[in-house]
Amino acid sequence: MAKKQEDLMQKIVSFCKRRGFIYPSSEIYGGFANSYSYGPYGTELKNNLKRLWWKKFVQDRVDMVGIDGPILLNPRLWEASGHTSGFNDTMVDCKGCKKRFRADHLIEAATSLDLEGDIARMAKALKEKKINCPECGQTNWTEPRNLNLMFTTTMNGVEGPVYLRPETAGAIFVDFKNVIDSMRVKIPFGIAQIGKAFRNEIVAGNFIFRLREFEQMEIEYFIDPEAKWEKLFDWWLKEEEEFALALGADKKDLRRFEHPKEKLSHYSRKTVDIEYNFPFGFSELYGLAHRGDFDLSQHAKASGQDLSYFDQINNRKYLPHVLEPTFGVDRSILVALCTAYHEEEVEGEIRTVLKFPPALAPVKIAVFPLLKNKAELVVKAKEIFDLLKDKYFCEFDDNGNVGKRYRRQDEIGTPYCVTIDFDTLEDKMVTVRDRDSMKQERVAVAELVNYFNNKFSN
Ligand code: ATP
Asked: What's the mean pLDDT when you consider all of the chain?
């Protein structure tokens, strides 16, 4: 990682802990396996991000419905989808320092060869290319072997292992029949879901980029198998990019990576990743795959149920094909943090400011009485807080001088601060201060709700 970018990543990690966005989890017990908790501001940010996605992809569209399926599903689902046999990554251990690595990542970092899924070639490359252990420098490796990424648990009354879902998509396919029977959906239409997914990643890391417990926002978009799909595929790619731009991403930090034909799963016609230029380099942010009718046909076969769709307009019965746009919540949060984080010099001091798009900002408006020991100012400020809080998540802060309070709100990305001073008691106006320009203006209390409605609707 380039020095400057590495610094940025470290700054973001420590900033997130210090300012209540993201904490290392189980810290009082020495931490736990690269897992993280979202703190109070991080939780608001994440909820805002998910709300934005849900509005764009479900509520604003007539061809989408949303579901919320369980994490624990009938294990036969994962047999049918191929996950129990094929959802593997390849690991290798350094015999010297005993550190474990994902073999394809290790080889790719050293040689630029992408051997993901090809265990024989990985074994050969490890021997022939004399790949050094990034930890201790030795070249003494165990044989690479596959590890299934699904977490298992047990359930009372159920024989054998039960899996924590490794992706949210499975729950969508098993509900397909219920959705077409209970809703008046017509092809083409999509089913969306946001929720947790679990993968026993060989190496988690890069903060919240690769977690073992993470969240996904996924869509299965069902189409007529005879329909032309190429334009629609491209349209979904643009939608994914548009969502990343709405988080604040710069266009130049986004690129597409099309999976080469020979590496595609047998059922996929096309798979493209949207990659983002994270501080550690371009890596997958979102994905889009044409999965044909693989999932529905597998589940139809394994369950013995008819999962076909009757197209009344064309009087045809078929198993729909599916386009699968998939978005990682945590990777989206990382994009939002990396793009929002700024350090600026203001009057000889460094101000840290998170320039979140307003829709993402954890707190929308902060309300301050100029002085906390003047009851009349505090009462008035509480009135203003009550006036705004119904519509906007507000924070009341009376601690320290106003300059410090501004800095605190800049740090968590609050777009506006409202200060109630002695003049307010006379002229019924307050000072509104803008996070990005730091400009202040006087606004009449009677106009305040309108003022913010205009600001936040832009
Ligand atoms: P990678 O190649 O980085 O392991 P993947 O191709 O396995 O990712 P998908 O199966 O396509 O990922 O998962 C869909 C989305 O879920 C990804 O685009 C990403 O945003 C998110 N995601 C996948 N694995 C993780 C993880 N371990 N931690 C956080 N987010 C993840």
From this structure: 96
